[in-house]
Amino acid sequence: MSGDGATPVSPNTETDRGDDAAEHDETDRTEVQTGASAVIRALENAGVRYAFGVQGGAIMPVYDALYDSAIDHITMAHEQGAVHAATAYGTVTGDPGVCMATSGPGATNLVTGIADANMDSEPLLALTGQVPTDFVGNDAFQETDTVGVTRPITKANYFSSSPDTVGGDVSEAFGLAKMGRQGPTLVDLPKDVTQGETDADPGGPTTPGTYNPAEEADQAAVERAAERFAQAERPVILAGGGVMKADACEQLYEFATEFEVPVVTTMPAIGAFPEDHELSLSWAGMHGTGYANMAITMTDCMLAVGTRFDDRLTGGIDTFAPDADIIHADIDPAEISKNVHADYPLVGDAKAVFEQFHAAMPQAPEADEWLEQVAQWKDEYPMDYEMDEDGPIKPQFVVEVVDAATADDTIVTTGVGQHQMWASQYWTYTKPRTWVSSHGLGTMGYGLPAAIGARIAADDDQQVVCFDGDGSFLMTCQELSVAVREELDITVFVLNNAAIGMVRQWQDAFYEQRRMASEYPWMPAFDKLAEAFGARGFRIESYDEVEETVQEALDYEGPSIVDVFIDPEENVYPMVPSGGDNGLFALSEDQL
Amino acid sequence: MSGLQGPDPNERARPQGKRNEQGFRIDPEAAAEPETRRTVISALVENEPGVLAKVSGLFSRRQFNIESLTVGTTEDEELSRITLVVEESDPGIEQVEKQLAKVIPVISVRELADDAVQRELVILKVNGGSQPDKVQAVTEMYDGTTLDAGPRTITVQITGDEQKINDAIDAFRQFGIREIARTGQAALARGERWTAATEGSQATEGAKGTYADDD
Ligand SMILES: Cc1ncc(C[n+]2csc(CCOP(=O)(O)OP(=O)(O)O)c2C)c(N)n1
């Protein structure tokens, strides 16, 4: 499909991760003899070093071609684990993670993870086996219409039709996953196509001629917007995941600090601006900080960059930043005015837009009063929790202890639920690409496979921890076998409340405490489960064990699971109920 | 119990304004329903398998109100033109255009002006066997053509804009309509203006989905 007008994308050779594997020379590359070897060659040409997957009939030719390749394959326990690991790899490195699965159940097991990556605009390439072309449409063994199933959840997907073009399909899918607004792509590989003969080198990653994301925003529009922003009395920057994706965190920092503008992030952008900086208000939305929610509600001019104004951020649209002129910069024109009308639309890459905007600012906004107000909100609504030394352990405390015991660049992955919110609220993120979580789809089970992908992507001396819920952990805990086999140094803290706590919290607040199907009357012993897998298992049942056991688990070089018995009644606040008014966030249940 | 402190919701500073459902700032007293309008959007796409599925899937997923969708080849055999009639609010129409433009094989997208040349074709089968002259008269009134005439049924074709097709269908009701097949609207911009077009055929501003207004 890489037809005329295709644009080459530079392969991932610029790596500062201090390793040499991206610089395979020509002799390390697979010789193209079949469609399958063309697929592998396309990955090599793109600088791919790792693939996560599970074998199976229809994908066997591709695995066979992988046999001689320098690409490392990490065999996962379940395809969902493979796709989450690959997605997290993409989050940490910025380059598409690659996952592989066979046809039918292998491909359908990827679906949740592809949808997850799509919602969070994560760069991901999925390769799926397919029954031979002649069998397609006949309901053959392990046949699923993978392209049909994944059409609404991929940025682009391909059904490969010939050995001569299959490598080009992979190069284009890789290029599209990485370029512009990032996202998941998929190439479906019929077995006859991968087995067929070809000698066509697919070349490096490309994007089709019909795909031309803007780099810089329209200069006149930037100048108008900057003029407005400079006049703001209550300015705020809302940094979204696009800032991270565009590697624009430095530009954000320079802009915010030079013009003294408070910075609020969305959840996917946690870490895009150092949370220990006085201009940081941490993140806004349903469980964001009180001060962030006050700031985005009271602002008169918001510079929103790389965010899609998700409903968990905006609450009800009617009450979202209702006094503000909105300057919205995004690389995807379809995001502009989709959910919130943009008074100043800017289409461009976040890095370029920040640079243009910075240069176009006539002066800093005169906002001393506002800065004082914001500082006052920070004092008024501190993130805090009650602690009784003899009572059950508060999860927030555990998060703080682990944060204190680890280095600043430690990567945190999570499942989905209350634990995810505590991990985002009580850990102070100061570095980009250290927060790895499932936002838009909210996929329980993300944490452990994501920790595996993040571990493989991270620098050797970088620590990787996962905060998981007991419910989320049970959804993908089989991937522990992979962490043990691959000797991956990760530490998983299961914040065990013997419940799917977030659901229990909603039942208590909105369903008259009718706790239907949310409490687990019996839980496996996660420490013993860890040992059965060959990992180290720990258990924490009281406050006096927390610090020591956390340290011991972190010190262990290999995968460890810490089963932390937390207060089963603890809830996540502040909270803006679904569709609510951010400025009316509740600090406790009786304020809902 | 949470240990969070701070003023109650009712003690906090409050903003003055309000937005409507579409995220526009409005007078808080006057929350008007968004008005919809009917318009024709044309898209030029690469002829490749799955492109129609991508486009139609997009409309159902995003709940766009599509009245008709036609697709056919163009002067360039590698390209097809999709013509859509949509009924949406202004921001909705903008979203239709932008989401369409995002589909990878879509080359360009354009909303056509009101004076665009629009045609639809309908094939009508009526129970007119007993009164062929009357059927013939109505067919002529609408500049139609008789495609098939039998002892019990007569099948005719009418082309025209949507209004004319609707009127014709009404006029044929007197005979008893057995079956109808309609094609939906096909349209081109009037005069020398370009419909959604490729880069070679008009000055574009570079980015897909945008175009220099060459009127
Ligand atoms: C795959 C999936 N199924 C169901 C849900 C709905 N859900 C959201 S949070 C939650 C509870 C998660 O429980 P747990 O992992 O134990 O975390 P906790 O909230 O207790 O910290 C559930 C069931 C979901 N987000 N994802």
Q: How would you describe the overall organization of this protein?
A:
- By secondary structure, chain A is α/β, with parallel strands linked by helices.
- Helices cover 36% and strands 15% of the residues of chain A.
- In chain A, the strands form four sheets. A six-stranded parallel beta sheet of chain A has the order 3-2-4-5-7-6, sandwiched between helices. In chain A, strands 11-10-9-12-13-14 form a six-stranded parallel beta sheet, with helices on both faces. In chain A, strands 16-15-17-18-20-19 form a six-stranded parallel beta sheet, with helices on both faces.
- In chain A, strand 19, helix 22 (543-555) and strand 20 (560-565) form a beta-alpha-beta unit.
- In chain A, helix 3 (79-93) runs parallel beside helix 4 and helix 10 packs parallel to helix 13.
- Chain A is globular, with a radius of gyration of 24 Å.
- The model of chain A is unreliable at 13-24 (pLDDT under 50).
- Chain B has 215 residues and is an alpha+beta fold.
- Chain B has helices at residues 51-61, 90-102, 132-141, 162-172, and strands at 18-19, 25-26, 36-46, 66-73, 79-89, 106-111, 117-126, 145-149, 154-160, 177-182, 186-188.
- In chain B, strands 7, 8, 9, 10 and 11 form a five-stranded antiparallel beta sheet that branches.
- In chain B, strand 8 and strand 9 form a beta hairpin.
- The longest helix of chain B has 13 residues, at 90-102.
- Residues 202-215 of chain B have low confidence and may be disordered.
- The interface between A and B is large, with 55 and 48 residues.
- The structure holds thiamine diphosphate.
